[in-house]
Amino acid sequence: MEIRAVTVDDETPWELQHSEILAFIRKYNSGRVPPTVLRNLLRLTPSDLLQPGGSMLVARIRAEDGERLAGVSCVMDYGRALCVVVVHPLYRGCGLGAELLQAQQTRLKQLSCRVALSQIQSLRLCFRAGMYASGLTRDPNGKPLLLLETRPVSPTPAASVSHTSKEGDFVVTTRSGHSNLVPQ
């Protein structure tokens, strides 16, 4: 399996790549991708992927009849505008979704996602990719969303800090710059 960035080149036209990815997402999203996200993906252009914080990655497998998509991840504005991962049902539970998110983190150096609290599998995927819960927000319909972010990278080793939380505990805080955070 190979994870690589979607690029616009003369070999494979954008329209062909885009339509293959959209068809994959429509077929295998299992109803987890909201219609607004699908519309944003439909409107995606090659210039969007060139913007800071924009990236689309695909995971491909080699089959007897050629390469096939196994997973897709698309991020815009470091995940603030769009963060979606879709994995083929045959490859779910194998860590492919977490690999795609980790590859996005490596590529972009920072990443945030908003995930509905009811989407346990999506939350698990983000935690497996090394993200942490940094806040609680709401979607336009009032549905609670957990804001997940990459771990901050410190240029110097942090001093030992004592705390009472254990690894894996949810820590919900308010963060500046996120106007739709739920007050504590």
Short note summarizing the structure:
This protein is an alpha+beta fold. Helix content is 27%, strand content 26%.
Describe the 3D structure.
By secondary structure, the chain is an alpha+beta fold. It is built from five helices and seven strands, in the order βαααβββαβαββ. The protein has helices at residues 14-28, 35-42, 46-50, 96-108, 120-128; strands spanning 2-5, 55-63, 66-76, 82-87, 112-116, 132-138, 144-149. The strands form two sheets. It has a four-stranded antiparallel beta sheet, sandwiched between helices. The protein starts with a strand and ends in a 35-residue tail after the last strand. 26% of the residues are buried. Mean pLDDT is 84; it is low at 157-163 and 170-184.
Quickly give the structural class: alpha+beta
Shape label: globular
Q: What is the first-to-last residue Cα distance?
A: 43 Å
Strand percentage lies at 25-35%
Main β-sheet, spatial strand arrangement: 1-2-3-4
Averaged pLDDT: 84
Number of helices: 5
Count of extended strands: 7
- Spans of at least 5 consecutive residues whose pLDDT stays below 50 are 157-163, 170-184
Write the layout of secondary structure elements.
Blueprint: E1 2-5, H1 14-28, H2 35-42, H3 46-50, E2 55-63, E3 66-76, E4 82-87, H4 96-108, E5 112-116, H5 120-128, E6 132-138, E7 144-149
Antiparallel strand pairs: 1-2, 2-3, 3-4, 5-7, 6-7
Labels describing this entry:
alpha+beta; disordered C terminus; 4-stranded antiparallel sheet; 184 residues; 5 helices; 3-stranded antiparallel sheet; 7 strands
